[in-house]
Specification:
Number of helices: 8
InterPro entries: FecR, FecR_N, Ferrdict_sens_TM
Order of helices and strands: HHHHHHEEEEEEEEEEEEEEEHEEHEE
Shape: globular
Number of domains: 3
GO molecular function: sigma factor antagonist activity
Strand content: 25-35%
Protein name: DUF4880 domain-containing protein
Pfam family, one: DUF4880
Helix content: 25-40%
Number of strands: 19
Structural class: alpha+beta
Radius of gyration: 20 Å
Largest sheet: 14 strands, mixed
CATH class of the largest domain: Mainly Beta
Organism: Cereibacter changlensis
Length: 309
């Protein structure tokens, strides 16, 4: 069943399936709970930032088209991530780790909870976090996704740390957000007090309230003002301020199963306003009402925003 799910994942992502094929896929996915679960696991392999989809998949299929041998190679790589985690250790990120995280949200799900030290933690869509609280420190490790943290100084003077693949963020007490971006980048936004950032190679910086920056394992980018509405996802809203339509669609796609794409012909249209993250179909309809675009649904899992005909 996992092999079938891998085949469908590759076909829907890299081919141009017609309506008949999409209907066939829907029937396959709805056969049983096991089929749906296998499809969900296959989808995990293509969540950004994922090296199989973003790097290997495109490189393999780009060479003279999706030949049978190259398709079989990509299929094998996807299956490696699905059923043989030990064999996937050569990849920089392993999506399977998120399946066993201490705290996790699915696509479109948000979750808020209080940690043992009274820290308020919110998880955005498709987020996975591990917790390690000891007598010496309070540590979170974010594996994927986005979090919002509100913590206060600990009576035992334990620092609060958020560990990532690229480095860590440390504070005694602050309200801040952290998001894993594509290309191994981490964005930190500070809303109250301050945090320290240390990269994997030892570079460091301090961000004050109202500041944000992105970092990788090798360095920290320019400090900027926190974007308006950076934490509005907590209320289920996306605030677009003169954003490119392609960027808006990318954001909305984080909260929806399947493929949601923006046609390059309309990618540069500018969008301003508030959009719902709890009802993506309504958000798409609002875009269609306010911009010269239309929403083309080839199936529930294949949606494209194109120029209005």
């Amino acid at each position: 069943m996992l092999e079938e799910a891998a085949d469908w994942a590759i076909t829907l992502r890299y081919d141009d399936p017609d309506e008949a094929l999409l209907q066939l896929f829907d029937r396959w996915r709805c056969q049983s709970a096991g089929h749906s679960a296998a499809w969900e696991r296959a989808q995990e392999m293509f969540r950004p930032p994922d090296p199989v989809a973003a790097v290997i998949g495109k490189a393999v299929l780009r060479r003279d088209g999706p030949s049978t041998s190259r398709r079989m190679l990509l299929r094998g790589l996807v299956l490696t991530g699905l059923v043989a985690p030990a064999g996937a250790l050569a990849l920089r990120k392993q999506p399977w780790r998120s399946w066993f995280a201490d705290l996790r949200t699915g696509v479109g799900e948000r979750r808020a909870l209080t940690l043992p030290d009274s820290t308020e933690l919110a998880l955005n869509t498709a987020t996975a976090v591990n917790l390690t609280f000891s007598g010496a420190e309070r540590r979170l490790r974010i594996l994927e996704g986005e979090i919002l943290v509100s913590t206060v100084p600990d009576p035992a003077a334990r620092p609060f740390l958020v560990e990532t693949q690229e480095g860590e963020v440390q504070t005694a007490g602050a309200r801040f957000g952290l998001r894993c971006l594509a290309d191994a980048r981490i964005r930190v936004s500070v809303f109250e007090h301050s945090v320290g950032v240390v990269t994997a190679r030892g570079g460091g910086a301090t961000l004050q309230a109202g500041e944000q920056a992105e970092f990788t394992g090798v360095g920290i980018g320019e400090t900027r003002s926190v974007e308006d509405g950076a934490a509005l996802w907590r209320q289920g809203m996306l605030l677009a301020q003169d954003m490119r339509l392609a960027e808006v669609i990318d954001e909305l796609s984080r909260y929806r199963h399947g493929l949601l794409r923006c046609d390059p012909a309309v990618a540069g249209l500018r969008v301003s306003g508030a959009l719902s993250l709890t009802d993506i179909d309504s958000a798409l309809e609002l875009l269609a009402q306010t911009l010269p675009v239309q929403v083309v649904r080839r199936s529930d899992l294949w949606v494209t925003v194109t120029a209005r005909s």
